[in-house]
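Work Package 4 report. The design task specified in the project plan requires that, given a folded chain encoded as structure tokens, an amino acid be chosen for each position. We show below one input record used in the internal validation round.
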């Protein structure tokens, strides 16, 4: 269980780091969408329908990869890792 959580959190951190060094706005948004997909996989939700068409592929990549990693840890439940995710990601700024 912990190994799968660590794999997903490591992947989220990789997306965050790539976002920080992105050269273009599109590249930055792509990494953000992929990270959002990973977070949603951990939380057990799917926002594909409400994701912008230009970001849907990257969001789907993160979501599918996160769901695949979750299958390796059946005991890993979305609610069990919510607080751990929030510690890693931090609060979402409001506009």
């Amino acid at each position: 269980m912990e190994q799968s959580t660590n794999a997903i959190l490591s992947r989220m951190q990789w997306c965050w780091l790539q976002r920080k060094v992105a050269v273009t706005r599109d590249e930055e948004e792509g990494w953000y969408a992929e990270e959002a997909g990973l977070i949603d996989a951990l939380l057990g939700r799917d926002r594909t329908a409400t994701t912008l068409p230009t970001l849907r592929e990257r969001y789907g990549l993160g979501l599918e990869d996160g769901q695949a990693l979750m299958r390796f840890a059946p005991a890993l439940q979305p609610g069990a890792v919510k607080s751990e995710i929030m510690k890693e990601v931090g609060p979402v700024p409001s506009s």
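The CA atoms of residues 23 and 86 lie 27 Å apart. Validation will be extended to a larger panel in the next phase.
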